[in-house]
Amino acid sequence: MIHSRPKPSTFIALGLIVLVQIFGLVYILNHFATKRSFGLPIYLSGTAILTLVIVLLLVKMMAAYKFIAIGKDQIITRLPLRGKTTTYSLSEVMVWEEENVITNKREFKQLTIVFEDKSSFSISNHEHLNYEEFVKSLNKKLPKKKITAGKKS
Q: Taking all residues of the chain, what is their mean pLDDT, rounded to a whole number?
């Protein structure tokens, strides 16, 4: 069975960015409470922007925390934050597509699988482990359900 899970390095990098922004937010709030050397609009806009970015990054991290496995004629998807695990047989896969995007001389790949119950599951080569093995397995087991997409740049 081939398992694809989020790369720890992705979560560590995003976590560090969130921590730096939280420290920045605490600094701004502390500066407002103690010194107030800037105008109120500066504090309000800085606090609002930092809070919004922190929330968006946390939502991105939670949405990316998902697992998928393929083996023995079935695909198992797991979304731990929702407490949801679903098992699909390979015959329940309607289509799957691998999209390639070239940006700044780097190639990003994203795999999307659509199931008969109209749910879909996406993973990317930069955020998930065992991406290439997963695509090879799909090419081997479900070649007729692949949608071919061109390269974008």
A: 93
Phi, psi for 150 (deg, rounded to 5):
-80, 170
Output the pTM of the full model: 0.79
- Distance (Å, rounded) from C-alpha 67 to C-alpha 6? 7
Structure tokens at 43: 């504090």
Q: Is the dihedral of CA 14, 78, 68, 121 positive or negative?
A: negative
Given a contact cutoff of 8 angstroms between Cβ atoms, the answer to whether 137 and 1 are in contact is: no
- Predicted confidence (pLDDT) at residue 153 exceeds the cutoff of 80: no
Contact by Cβ (8 Å): 4, 129: yes
For residue 133, the surrounding DSSP H or E stretch is helix 131-141
